[in-house]
Amino acid sequence: MSYRVKLVPRPVVIDADGLPVPNSHVVEITFPGDAIETALGRVNTIVGPGTAKVLVGDATIRGVRLF
Fold first, then answer.
1. Which residues make Cβ contacts (< 8 Å) with residue 36, sequence separation at least 6?
2. Averaged pLDDT in 10-residue chunks for the chain of 67 residues
3. Apex CA 32: angle with CA 65 and CA 24, to 5°?
4. Taking a C-beta distance cutoff of 8 angstroms, is the pair 67, 4 a contact?
């Protein structure tokens, strides 16, 4: 089964048809980051697409794409 996480209006796990997945929960959302130099010093910034860790039933699934 393919899952994605829809962020708006709240994080929710959706299936390939765009429907909410019953008995699911978004546990964590992460974005790859890096520090860049600015005139005010080093600032953390997002450098790529985020991924989520979700629970579907008793299964933990990592690396779920955000939508």
1. 42, 43, 45
2. 93 96 97 94 94 97 95
3. 35
4. yes
